[in-house]
Specification:
Its main location: cytoplasm. This protein is of the alpha+beta class. Helix content is about 30%, strand content about 30%. The protein binds guanosine-5'-diphosphate.
Length: about 525
């Protein structure tokens, strides 16, 4: 059992759209032998055209089901890559997926540097102290100066960095990378578009000049000296405690620098770590099974409204057909066909170990965040909701179908499609999302899966803040003063719906003993 845990690497590849996440994932799968040719992995990016074709979105959702988890064996390690939606309107899904990983690889476009989505995702990693490795991609294109990029990473992502490889020029003059970790030079040949040679060269030898030319050799020596001067020696523990992010340079498209990244990753990335439950810390080595649901995906076949709930195994061994406790429902459940996922297929499994993701057929019994155990009353926590960025009232557009609408909204929210707030003053329901596409998906799915019709009405809101205070009187007085803007989230927590940044800062100013949180986990 300990050996099985030790060899598992469960992680997510995250990036701002277009930085190269899909391309890198695909190259990893090639090394893992899961696919034989490039181009076999479909991007689960939802491309929205002016006249959006809904079947297309449905199909693409289907693709994202099959590529939700990708498992492969590599050099004795069992690698589980958790895929995240490419479209930023589904960022919540990505945030939740990050609660199920033990580490992450962040892909950054060398020309664009840190982008909005990178920043947000890193916030989640920081909150959870998830170790990250950064891959600076597209070195075959004209990009920014590596030192500038590293400074930007440190500043914007609020983490110390340590380069473990270093590029020799870039764009059309890109010659390769010097692998600081292995002290080897990997040469890039542009016309062949892949690594042609790996040479062990002493950085001070004339051999280096022979390989990359005098000028680039001199620059590399100078750069490496600076790197060693500026960045402290790499220490695995600093990485695992999420204090330092190792950085690699390469080109995913050209499969350059990718294997080096993968080799270093499996060696240094943490195996499954203890998971925090409300009651106690749960260590993966414990013999009894525990796990939690971090993602629910609806089936694309409208005739069989069934979902797959993704369960991360936190401790013990998960066994098929074994009775487990569904803690929230207080019910015993068994799974006769739990699945595991390979690049494009899925198969029934007999058992799974900590770090693994098991797909459980779900006919509506699961909510995001549910805990499964071998009988113990445990509640895994830490599935944060973030303040949405867009808000709309949801109204019933077909009075005959009020029940269906209610059921649909409830289930979609359980799946985590968006967030629901009920205004305590007028009882109206407000849906909060990260992007417009989520509203469209909700409306479409309500019609197709629940036979209910909804209508959106505008509501002008700036942010939703979860509020708390040790000063009960002040909390009460705040709620009284702001009664028109007080709502409850799905868990019944108090949420203040601020209609402008000004109102929010005034409230923060006037009520000093109240804490305003922009995530539900505090
Ligand atoms: P994702 O949105 O992060 O999944 O990005 P993709 O993997 O779909 O890549 C976005 C685009 O960048 C695609 O057209 C890729 O072919 C391209 N791309 C990815 N990696 C590289 C690279 O190393 N060099 C160049 N020039 N293009 C790349």
């Amino acid at each position: 059992m300990n050996n099985e845990i030790e060899r598992r690497r469960t992680f997510a590849i995250i990036s701002h759209p277009d930085a190269g996440k899909t391309t890198l994932t695909e190259k990893f799968l090639l090394f893992g032998g899961q696919i034989q040719v490039a181009g076999a992995v479909k991007s689960n990016k939802i491309k929205k055209t002016a006249t959006s074709d809904w079947m297309d979105i449905e199909k693409q959702r289907g693709i994202s089901v099959s590529t939700s988890v990708m498992e492969f064996d590599y050099e004795g390690y069992k690698v589980n890559i958790l895929d995240t939606p490419g479209h930023q309107d589904f960022a919540e899904d990505t945030f939740r997926t990050l609660t199920a990983v033990d580490s992450a690889i962040i892909v950054v476009d060398s020309a664009k540097g840190v982008e909005t989505q990178t920043r947000k995702l890193m916030t989640v990693c920081r909150m959870r102290k998830t170790p990250v490795i950064i891959f600076i991609n597209k070195m075959d294109r004209e990009g920014r100066d590596p030192f500038d990029l590293l400074d930007e990473l440190e500043q914007e992502l609020e983490i110390k960095v340590r380069p473990l490889s270093w590029p020799v020029n870039q764009g059309v003059k890109f010659k390769g990378v010097y692998n600081i970790y292995e002290k080897k030079l990997d040469l890039f040949t542009p016309d062949k578009q892949r690594v042609t040679e790996k040479v062990e060269v002493d950085i001070d030898s004339a051999e280096l000049d022979a390989h990359v030319g005098d000028r680039d050799a001199a620059k590399l020596r100078e750069d490496l000296e600076l790197v060693d001067g500026v960045y402290p020696e790499f220490n695995v523990e600093d990485y695992r405690s999420a204090d330092v992010a190792p950085v690699f340079f390469g080109s995913a498209l050209n499969n350059f620098g990718v294997q080096e990244l993968l080799d270093c990753f499996v060696e240094i990335a943490p195996s499954p770590r203890p998971t925090k439950a409300e009651e106690r810390m749960v260590s993966p080595e414990e013999p009894k099974f525990t796990g939690f649901i971090f993602k629910i995906t609806a089936n694309i076949d409208p005739n069989h409204r069934s979902c797959i709930a993704f369960c991360k195994v936190c401790s013990g061994r998960f066994v098929r057909n074994q009775p487990y406790l569904h803690v929230r429902l207080g019910k015993t459940v068994r799974f006769s066909s739990p699945t595991q996922f390979m690049a494009q297929r899925k198969s029934t499994i007999e058992e799974a170990y900590p770090g693994d993701i098991v797909g459980l057929p779900d006919n509506g019994i699961f909510k995001i965040g549910d805990t499964l155990t071998d009988g113990e009353q445990l509640h895994f926590r830490g599935l944060p909701s973030f303040s949405p960025e867009m808000f709309k009232y949801i109204e019933n557009a077909d009075p005959m179908k009020a029940k269906q609408l209610q059921k649909g909204i409830d289930q979609l929210m359980d799946e985590g499609v968006a967030q629901l707030f009920v205004n305590q003053f007028n009882g109206r329901k407000i849906i909060g999302t990260v992007g417009q596409l989520q509203f469209e998906v909700i409306q479409y799915r309500l019609e197709n899966e629940y036979n209910a019709k909804c209508r959106w009405e505008p509501v002008h809101l700036y942010k939703a803040c979860w509020i708390e205070s040790d000063d009960a009187a002040e909390l009460e007085s705040f709620k009284k003063r702001k009664y028109q803007y007080m709502a409850k989230d799905k868990e019944g927590r108090d949420v203040f719906l601020a209609d402008s940044g000004y109102v929010l800062s005034m409230a923060q100013e006037d009520f000093k003993n109240i804490k305003f949180h922009f995530t539900s986990e505090f």
